Amino acid sequence: MQTIHDILPFMKNILIRVDWNVPIHDGITLDNSRILETIPTLMRLLNSGKHITIMTHLGRPKGAYQADSSLKLLLPEVEKLLQQRVNFIEDLDQLGHQWEHPISLLENIRFFPGEETNDLELIQRLINKADAFVNDAFSVSHRAHASVEGVTHHLPHFAGVLMERELSNLTYFHDHYERPLMVICGGAKISSKIDFIQNMLKKAKTIALVGGLANTFLKAKGLNVGQSLVEDDAIDLAKRIIDQATIDGCELWMPDQVRVGKSLEDIPIDKSVADVHPDERILDIAPRSLDDLLTAMSDAKTIVWNGALGVFERPVWSNGTFTLAKELGRLTQQKHVQTLAGGGETVMALRQTNTFNQITYVSLAGGAFMEFMEGRKLPGVVPLL
Fold it and tell me: 9 pLDDT exceeds 80?
């Protein structure tokens, strides 16, 4: 794999893809992890005399300008972390111009039609006057988009520091994990994690299904989950996974005690899943089931975690997610369990509990993290190898 150390001296103008799709509220960046982790790549390029043009997306604007997805909102945070001024490029026609500062930020790449369809005309405009391309956005490298995969057909391409680190660590976990393996899979929906769960059935001793994702499985088992988030069109698939787990000898663990409310503003009530009322929503795991989950983790040698156990953004519904984060940190540091965590909300929970640096490895990716662990070839990674 060619990295930024292999970029030749005459390659002065570098086009770089990062993933700065970070949460912003009222102009404040709530979690700057994804920006921070790309700073080493940017500084190494700048210190070697390169001129850099950064591409990233923010949100899902679908090929049109949206004020709340403009990268102007990120510019103050980026300049603060880099400790220098950054040129802001609003229009593709401005690419390749002479700028005052050696680093430029292109407006949200998903504002431009053709990004998600890997359009050749857009690619040709992006590479205008660029000498080389650097991919430091592992977390979007499962997408065959213009700024991720398309440009690699037209420019010499290299891996950034973050990309190299992600691939090295995830490859190790994929190939050399210690058994028994436990997977904890949560978050809002089952649809985006089906392939990951099915793949892990053949590897893991236990798969714990938690968070909103678990509701679909609980309903598939005939339990009433009230007004909880459920993907009804995935219930038959959930049933097949339950059956397949039995065949593969993998235990599918789900909570039987949950915390419910009729709204996010309610005071949490702990009860059995069997007792959830038709007008209630499951919003967190209850302490009794949380204790069972922690006990189930105790004999694992490797634990992989992706996805929250509840609506942890609200303090009253954060106990399950935050307790799990702290326990994973403890097992890693005190029991030498190999722990791997990934995904945006998982990273945020680790940051908020000050356990990010206690985990063996934390991937900033979500979908790419899961697809890589499934053994898939990622469109943005293949050209680098």
Answer: yes
Distance CA 29, CA 78 (A): 10
Closest CA to 158 of 332, 297, 16, 273: 16
Q: What would the CATH number be for the domain defined by 177-374?
A: 3.40.50.1260
Quick one: which of 127, 121, 113, 136 has its CA closest to 3?
136
Q: How far apart, in whole angstroms, are the C-alpha atoms of residue 213 and residue 315?
A: 20
Instruction: Take residue 206 and report the two structure tokens written for it.
Output: 């236990």
pLDDT tens, position by position, 101-118 = 999 999 999 999 999 999
On the 0-12 / 13-18 / 19+ scale of CB atoms within 10 A, 5 is exposed
CATH fit for domain 4-161, picks 1.10.10.10, 3.40.718.10, 1.20.120.1770, 3.40.50.1260: 3.40.50.1260
Domain ranges of the chain: 4-161, 177-374
Cα 210 to Cα 61, 154, 283: the distances in Å are 30, 44, 11
Over residues 272-295, the pLDDT tens digits come to 999 999 999 999 999 999 999 999
